[in-house]
Design the sequence.
């Protein structure tokens, strides 16, 4: 058997390993925060901790699969591993996430989400900001009103949400007479 017939042992994939370990750390944080949820003795079997634990279990399983894949050489094809990272695009995606974190309190969920959406779209190559703003606005409002109205969870009302709530309440009052 010649050396060209033998495959080189797979190399250890550090970036993929970091993703798996990072997901495992997130699962640990979910477990830690789930333990802090108060449980009333009125709950029989299904309480407020069930779905976070299911989520945590899924995260643990996925992280272990990712770590195993990283130890076997990673999941990226060789040609992708040789492609250089586009740091400018990565910067726009990170800027979008940081903008969302910093702007959600002063501006509200919708405005912060639209800014994040536009920056992330630009980072992924979109050069149609008007379309991105409109699509981001539609998705952010759907998410906001889904949480606020359907689930009763306040995820950060700002100027846009307050104005729309005023209009919606006025329309409801007119319809009811």
Sequence:
């Amino acid at each position: 058997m010649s050396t060209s017939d033998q495959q080189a042992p797979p190399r250890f994939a550090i970036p993929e390993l970091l993703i798996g370990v990072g997901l495992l750390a997130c699962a640990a944080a979910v477990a830690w925060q789930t333990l802090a949820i108060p449980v009333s003795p009125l709950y029989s079997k299904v309480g407020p901790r069930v779905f976070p634990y299911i989520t945590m279990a899924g995260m643990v399983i996925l992280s272990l699969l990712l770590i195993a894949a990283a130890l076997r050489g990673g999941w990226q094809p060789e040609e992708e591993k040789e492609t250089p990272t586009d740091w400018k695009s990565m910067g726009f995606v990170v800027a979008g996430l940081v903008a969302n974190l910093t702007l959600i309190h002063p501006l509200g969920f919708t405005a912060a989400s639209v800014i994040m959406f536009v920056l992330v779209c630009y980072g992924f190559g979109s050069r149609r900001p008007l379309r991105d703003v409109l699509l981001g606005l539609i998705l952010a409002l759907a998410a906001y009103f889904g949480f606020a109205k359907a689930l009763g969870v306040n995820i950060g009302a700002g100027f846009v949400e307050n104005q729309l709530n005023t209009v919606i309440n006025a329309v409801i009052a007119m319809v009811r007479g």
Summary: The helical segments are 14-35, 50-71, 78-81, 87-107, 109-123, 129-151, 159-176.
